[in-house]
Amino acid sequence: MADPKGFLTTPREEWPRRPVEERVRDWNEVYVPGALLPIISRQANRCMDCGVPFCHDACPLGNLIPEWNGLVSREDWRAASDRLHATNNFPEFTGRLCPAPCEAGCVLAINQPAVTIKNVEVAIADRAWEEGFAPPRAPERLSGRTVAVVGSGPAGLAAAQQLTRAGHTVAVYERADRIGGLLRYGIPAFKMEKRHLDRRLEQMRAEGTRFRTSTTVGKDVGAEELRARHDAMVIATGATAWRELDVPGRGLAGIQQAMEYLPLADRVCEGDLEVSPLSAAGKHVVIVGGGDTGADCLGTAVREGAASVTQLDIYPQPEAERDADSEPWPTYPKIYRLSAAHEEARDLRTAPAADADARLFAASTLRFTGDANGHVRALHLVEVDERRRPLPDSGRTLPADLVLLALGFSGPDRADGLINQLGLALDARGTIARDEGFATNVPGVYAAGDAARGQSLIVWAIAEGRSVAAAVDRRLTGGASRLPAPIGPYDRPMKV
């Protein structure tokens, strides 16, 4: 604890965003480059170095937050990088993409604004790359054992890096043409530029991890064949089976799933396409779903030049402050948050009829109507109460040339045949069943990430990847593993 009074004398100050009018004209990250370093040491000084740091429990990775806060306050960046990387393979990802449950669990947040843990984390990660504090860590010797990891999202990549560093030969299989899963094709570049992903992948290649792109396990290579070629197999394909909206008019053209829309925008940024075939340019866009994926669609549509963008959230508008009775500290509260995309929509008035920024709260979609050519032109909705019962005389109609469904995901996609070919058991939620050691019902096959846990946060995915790597390492070595296992398969976020 560098400054015992830091949390009393220094107010919370976050990484400033670039002006809205500037940032919506490009796909670069929304934050002012270089503006974090001048403030971050003071912000780290606000950490109280609690006797019982609940930020540890709020983060499934078990990040050593007070330790690296103290090191940053003294500007010991190398030591801070070592402590950060001790628990997190990819802090440059989480520092940009995680909603920071650690900050909700910060003891200071009981009655003051929390420490800017997420900003400190990303500052350490970026400084580590700039100063060369994150070199490849190739194993000293190889075990002679091989592992196939299916899926290259954060869970698969974390498992692959941990197992490679333990000395096993790891091959990652990805059905897309580039590695990264939703980090590559799903997360917009304005939230995380892909250079951060590419840089980490180069580190993994230098360590010895092998990557196989454009390979769908179950189609391009049989799942049983792959299992037979390796000593162990990790399924980390994510929960990509999207939820549908079964209302009249769903079959009209122009109604797309969010994950049909967002990857095309990412491909434009990658240089694969000049213009997205689903571009929102000049269109009235309605996004159904109030979560982060919907916000990603919102920011993307604004940058593509939509005529208007409205986001529908079936839940009532949250309060600005935590309800201490229903969501007490240190749980992660559902409060009104203004993401960069919502700030842009508010300032640009993309949805003049919205309740706040671009969102209509407590709104339920009734049906879609279209034109003579079978293309959607309007979305009909009704306001609902907290039990989602329609309110009388509350019907509204929104113009809609493009409707994006961002309703979440129900489990792993079964169309590729991997689950059926291996004979993997599923649980009642439709996700891959596993025991307390992350093992499936098929010998030598393990499951991690959203494919088994269900739709979750990036920190949980990385924690799953690290934990499944320890389980696989125990199998391959026949004894105890030196790899850390921060969570078990049945662990869940703190709730009331």
TrEMBL record:
What species is this protein from? Answer: Streptomyces colonosanans
- Keyword Membrane listed? The answer is no
Q: Domain 4Fe-4S ferredoxin-type: where?
A: 38-69
Q: Which domain of life is it from?
A: Bacteria
Q: Which gene encodes it?
A: gltD
Which keywords are on file for this protein? Amino-acid biosynthesis, Glutamate biosynthesis, Iron, Iron-sulfur, Metal-binding, Oxidoreductase
Pathway field of the UniProt record reads: Amino-acid biosynthesis
Q: Which GO terms describe its molecular function?
A: iron-sulfur cluster binding; metal ion binding; oxidoreductase activity, acting on the CH-NH2 group of donors, NAD or NADP as acceptor
The record's Gene Ontology biological-process terms are: glutamate biosynthetic process
This one is known as Glutamate synthase
Q: Which PANTHER family match?
A: GLUTAMATE SYNTHASE [NADPH] SMALL CHAIN (PTHR43100)
Q: Which NCBIfam families does its entry note?
A: GOGAT_sm_gam
